[in-house]
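Subject: for your reference before the review

Hello V.,

The reviewers asked for a structural picture of the protein, and I figured it would be easier to keep everything in one thread rather than splitting it across files. Below is the amino acid sequence we used in the manuscript, unchanged from the supplementary table.
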Amino acid sequence: MKGPNDLLILAAGRLPQGRYGGSLAGLGAVSLGRSAVEGLLADATLPRPRSVLWGMARSHTQGMNPARTLALGAGLPADTPAFTVNMACGSSLQALILAAQRLRDGAEAPILAGGSEAMSDTPHLVPGLRWGFRMGHRQLPDVMHHDGLRCPVTGLLMGETIERLAAKRGVTRLEADAWAAESHRRAVAADFGAELLPYPRLDHDESIRPGITEEGLARLAPVFDPQGQVTAGNASALSDGAAAILVARRDQVRDAVPLARILGWSEAGVDPLDMGEAPVPAVQRLLAAHGLAVTDIDLWELNEAFSAQLLVCQLQLDLPPERLNVAGGGVALGHPIGATGARIVATLIHQLRRRGGGLGVATLGIGGGLGLAVLLEVPA
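And here is what came back from the structure prediction:
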């Protein structure tokens, strides 16, 4: 049932995602974000955004408040406010939630939400250099490792927490490899034409590997524990990318034809050691708030930070595999941290449209033990 306060998604798209050190390396997260904004707003029928909320989790060297820089670089007027959101893997999904909350509270529409990440370009730092060195060795911390892949609460790398979680929940290496291979198979078969924004440097997702098999994945050595199960093949690919979403309230854009309606959202926190299963309580809260069951949801996008992590959540929520990440996920497509939340929303919307509409949930786990989930409806 339509109402004047409905929160509408007017457009959603993303750049093709580049592999680590691949075609998008060296461009920077601001440049990628600017290109996504320009690509989305190239549709002259769309209203111009009145503010920008942008996710970015590795903003070192990208200047102060990258959201403002990319907004102006994309040609938005100087009176367009913008700010940057850093919630690690949840950055751009939180940007979308904040946009929805602002619109619900009466903010001027539309709002552009999204995110970008250039993981290939994250720098190394030289702590202490400001005051000078006299004697002894010095470390050069890797920003991606130090400020992204390691949890400062537990001291563990994300993959190390997943090893513990998989053992705790009984997910095996064989199952993780099987899902990883399936993620690539689904991505190879998927049609991303409706969600991909044109970009001269790249026209496809570089991390997808046709012909990958469980047998091939089984030959890869574990990364974090010699007796463990997380490998380079069943974890998400490091990558570069950007995604953008234009949101408005129905009474502010009466003539617009929406792609989707935002019905609700939820947040949850768990023990940081159990970071990977934080989507479980987030989804449970979201469904309960709307009187829905898992079987009511037509498609699910649950970020594949690790295959084992996805399977832990899938088993606890009893998600039907045929409705989960139907176009592949982060293992095949890549996981550009600050962009992923908006990317899974764009994929969810366009995959639902291909199937005639329905309800969808986008959810992900976040380092430090946080989970986000968003409920969408795509009209038939």
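For the response letter, the relevant points are probably these. The longest strand covers residues 239-249. The mean pLDDT is 96.

Happy to draft the paragraph if you're swamped.

O.
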